[in-house]
Amino acid sequence: MLDKVIFYVFGGIAVVSAALVVTRRNAVHSAVFLITALLATAGIFLQLRAEFLFVVQIILYVGGIMVLFVFVIMLVNLDVALQQIQFSRQKWVALLVTLALAGQVGAMLWWAGQPGKKTLPLPVSVAAPAEKLPANAEAVAHSLFGPYLLPFEIASLLLLVAMIGAVVMAKKKV
Amino acid sequence: MGAGEPGDRERAVAEEGSKNQTVENTLKAGPGTLLGADELILNMGPQHPSTHGVLRVKLKLDGERVAGSECVIGYLHRGVEKIAEHRTYQQFGPYVDRMDYVAAVSNGLGYCEAVEKLLGVEAPPRAKVIRTILTELQRIASHLLWLGTHALDIGALTPLFYCLREREEILKIFEKYCGARLTTHAFRIGGLQYDAYDTLEKDTERFCNDFHRRIAEYEELLTGNRIWIARTQGVGILSAEDAIAMGVTGPVLRASGVQWDIRKAMPYAAYDQYEFDVPVGKTGDTYDRYLVRMEEMRQSVRICMQAIQNIPAGPILGKVGKVMKPPVGEVYHAIEAPKGELGYYIVSDGTVQPYRVRIRPPSFVNLQAFDKMVRGHLVADVVAIIGTLDIVLGEVDR
Amino acid sequence: MPAALQATLEFLRAYAGPLIASLVIVAVLPLIAGYVVLVERKVMADMQARLGPMRVGPHGLLQPIADAVKLLLKEDIIPEKADFWIFWLAPLVSVTAAMLSMAALAFGPAFQIARDINVGILFVVGISSLGIFGIVLGGWASNSHYSLIGALRSAAQLVSYETAAGMALVSGLLLGGSLQIRTIVEEQARQGVWFIFLAPVAFFIYMVASIAETNRAPFDLPEAESELVAGYMTEYSGFRWSLYFLAEYANMIVVASVATTLFLGGWMRPFASVRWMGWVDFLPPLLALGVAGYCVYRAPRQPVPVQKLVMLGVAGLCALVALLLAVPLLLPAAFFLKAGIHGAFWFVAKVGAYIFVFMWLRFTLPRYRFDQLMRLGWYFLIPVSIVNVMALGVGLVLHWQYRVNLWLALGGTTLLTLLIALWLVWADRKREAEALQARGGPGTPAADSYAG
Questions:
Q1: Residue C219 within any structural domain of the chain
Q2: Contact between chains at C89 and A52 (C-beta distance less than 8 A)
Q3: In terms of domains, do B155 and B302 share one?
Q4: B127 and B15 co-located in one domain
């Protein structure tokens, strides 16, 4: 019962703030709501006893990436931004993509509702008691350096390439 | 955005410009700034903790780098020079104390000697020596206040209190001598108003002996400190040619490597009787100015120690009348005040009031070098450079 | 709604302890922060040949309360062109982050607010890093150039130094083998050594980075008084301003606690594993008793009767603390209390010592310039911290896999790290000298721009 309450509170906050992110005209306000949405997601992680994910979400997304976001937004002239059109004109494409995504999620929910179907356990369904889980950080480490070693390395390589590319593009002259 | 809408950017710059017309006229925007962002105009002062009074500096910033600056002065203008035209020579004496109020004794010395020159009288030897002692003590006091505030600007909290502690001793000597601590009005035209009190020599000697140890303490805190060096070396470099071209004087000039000290070049008071060195710097950066002023304090102590050994007996006031009517004429007399050349240009029309008094304050002239020193530096250096120029706004604005 | 009621009851039953503890933190932390400020002012005054606050209460002991009252009564100004909501929100974010991060800390084996989650250290670091939003948003919302520059500086500084701090923490975590606070301290107890001795370089890096993260001198650039007036706090006044202040001091306590937990043996007493050093246990009660005795001795000399009473009150408080510390030692029946009470004492003492070093540095050193701060972070601290983590890893593998003596292995790697650090310093000085040479002398770029 309590789990459900917490989930719906956090989920509601996340959804509402996510909507506000795209509708606010002031970029800093958008950023604040994005932070709220990310924090609410982190809250859901915590409620699922995924403490490691919760902390990583906060350190990386909120504490790291969003700080840089806000940093850049503060440098932008907001008065100019206010006069620009808020939404791009690809409304129909956006609608299509959204519908597709909604359909996917809906199908999955329906699928999970069917008796006897094997699916991923959905977040609402159950949170395992903490005692039965292995230590979070270790579990993540085992999967990252065990079965998912190759994707992990590829991802880090990709990030490295992106980083070097960003530096090269940002630096006008050496 | 940035490169996308050049029109917007230009408009923003133009709007900013109309608000700050003078800045737009004097400070031309550089062609390209970091990140293509607009230049920021930061108004520093007149109420700002480290503009040393009411200096207002308009800074044109590219990020945190200074692209140009303009000093706005006049917030403390009291029309000292104009007042002089409506006061007798004696009555104007106290007004000069209120220019460089942290070195009132030096101001008074310059004024008294200028009027004496105009009158054609000379102060008796005893008066001259006592004047020298007090003026050198005032130089130390002024430099101490500079050191404390300069260090505070750069972020070292503690030296300020040590400096004030020692300055307090000097102010006590002044208080014992003439009853006032800050705006002393210690000297009279033609000599002194008060004779030296009984323990003046002893007090001065005790202070001087103590001060050697104290100054070592400051140097321990700052001179070798890596952060201090990093903050001052290479900051606000002023070349000798530039310094001379802009008429910069005092420790700022000497730190640029020019050996020019009026005490040596055109001795006044009793300076020709004493041995002292004139420290000069090499690069003309903030660190050199710091070292030069530190050494000047030591030299002042040296002068004081020599002076108290032998204070001649005799009268303290030369032959001046109660009503002073200098002959028609003009005179310029300059002394080496703590901050540089302090000159008084007085025109007499033969009445009891000067026809015109023009004061050449060192701070005002030294402040000219500010823009040259500050360009290309960061906001933090602006503060260090204001501090190292050692300006007093009472003197800049008069 | 019986279901909701039941849920509430269930919630309360499960979390009553933490709830009360967090209420206590929210209520007591401002007081503690106030007294940390008082101690700081007293230490500063002592170093600067002054007396510090002396007026309110004996030796200014009631100064924090007077300050708090003043701040509460001050007019709360919101600039007209400020972004009202963000201006309103920002100090709250700062102070919430600082307080929330305390939830996972353990002030002794018996005092921990949240359940000991197994990523405790990461939780503290992550949540306390949220405080930056308070600074950045507050600086932006003030609509003032000084605030904005302060906020930008703060963001850049925090992002830079958090990397170094994180790397230094990793060194400690490698030694502790866990992210859980209790486990880390117990591991230090088991090995019989504080990790500061095994990883001195990491401790040093964490110390420097934590000073930078809490915006303390010599890295207090975001609020550099002489340059930016008060940085991001320039437009704040009264109670909102005091929230920022509270957050700053709470953050100091947090970083000091993390350092204590990871490197200084947490709540362990010094020489806990040396048998004949057991007498150290008797020092804390004796110390408290001594302070109490001094207060009693000074009480008759206070000029005002109220001051005498307050002095006696302080003496009584100290005596009570002494009693509390002495009971588990003297009464065998109360021995089970010893770990909790003495652990808390030693933890607080270590945190206090760490904060004292912060203060000491603040009153001694001038402030870095922003580019120098960044250079120190990126060219020195981050490389050294990365090298240190790698070297430490190698040392530990040598110890675990190849049975090399722990001290030999870690000593060797520490030496290696120090050599690399020296090399970095040398390279930095060389670069600095070259930059100076390029800029100095007549005909500089600065002169050109003046001409144009």
A1: yes
A2: no
A3: yes
A4: no
Q: Using CA atoms, how far apart are residues C351 and C367, in angstroms rounded to an integer? A: 24
ipTM of the complex: 0.73
Q: Within this chain, do residues B26 and B146 fall inside the same structural domain, yes or no?
A: no
Structure tokens at B150: 């300069």
Residues C258 and C317 both lie in one domain: no
The domain boundary residue, chosen from B53, B72, B91: B72
**Does the distance separating the beta carbons of C452 and B156 come in below 8 Å?**
no
In terms of domains, do B59 and B102 share one?
no
Give A-chain residues touching B38 at CB under 8 angstroms.
77
From chain C, pick out residues whose CB is under 8 angstroms from the CB of B68: 449
List, in sequence order, every beta strand (DSSP E) within B88-202.
187-188, 191-192
Question: Which residues of chain B neighbour C445 with C-beta distances below 8 Å?
Answer: 376
Beta pairing class for B40-44 and B65-72? unpaired
Which of C73, C108, C126 is a domain's end point?
Answer: C73
pLDDT level of residue C437 (50, 70, 90 thresholds): low
| CATH architecture for segment(s) A1-86 | Up-down Bundle (1.20)
Q: Write down the pLDDT at residue C452.
A: 27
pLDDT for res A65: 83
**Are residues C389 and C263 part of one domain?**
yes
pLDDT tens digits, residue range C12-46?
777 777 778 778 878 888 888 888 888 888 888 88
User: Based on the domain organization, do C48 and C35 belong to the same domain?
Assistant: yes
Query: Across the interface, which of C220, C221, C366 has its CB nearest the CB of B156?
Result: C366
Count Cβ neighbours within 10 Å for each residue of C244-267 and write b for 16 or more, e otherwise: bbbbbbbbbbbbbbbbbbbbbbbb
The pLDDT score that the predictor gives to residue C444 is: 35
Minimum Cα–Cα distance from B10: chain A residue? A80
Question: How far is it, in rounded angstroms, from Cα B380 to Cα B220?
Answer: 23
If you measure CA to CA, which chain B residue comes closest to A76? B1
pLDDT at C226: 61
Residues 132 through 171 of chain C touching chain A, CB cutoff 8 Å: 132-133, 136-137, 139-141, 148, 151-152, 155-156, 158-159, 162
Question: A127 and chain C: CB distance < 8 Å anywhere?
Answer: no
The answer to whether A81 contacts chain B (CB < 8 Å) is: yes
Q: Tell whether the model's pLDDT for residue A124 goes beyond 70.
A: no
Structure tokens belonging to residue C332: 């065998």
Q: What is the C-alpha separation between C139 and C128, in angstroms, rounded?
A: 18
Give the alpha-carbon dihedral of B239, B242, B248, B250, to 10 degrees: 20
Q: Chain B: give the shortest CA distance to residue A161, in Å.
A: 22
- Choose the closest CB to A59 out of C89, C129, C158: C129
Does C318 share its domain with C298?
yes
Report how far residue C179's alpha carbon sits from residue C182's, in angstroms, rounded to the nearest whole number: 9
Q: Domain tally for chain C?
A: 3
- The domain spans of chain A are 1-86, 87-133, 134-174
Contacts 24+ apart (CB under 8 A), C269-273: C269/C342, C269/C346, C270/C346, C272/C189, C272/C192, C273/C189, C273/C192
C54 in the same domain as C39: yes
Range of the domain at C112: 74-268+363-436
Please say whether the beta carbons of C319 and C289 come within 8 A: yes
From chain B, pick out residues whose CB is under 8 angstroms from the CB of C48. 157-158, 160-162
* d(CA C451, nearest CA chain A) in Å: 25
Q: C217-263: per-residue pLDDT in tens?
A: 787 776 666 666 777 787 788 888 888 888 888 888 888 988 888 88
Q: How far apart are the first and last CA of chain C?
A: 78
The residue segments making up the domain with residue B140 are 80-397
Interface test with B, best of A77, A82, A85 (most B CBs within 10 A): A77
Q: How does pLDDT run across A64-109, given as a tens digit for each residue?
A: 788 888 877 777 666 666 666 666 677 888 889 999 999 998 888 7
Q: From CA B76, how far away is CA C337, in angstroms rounded?
A: 67
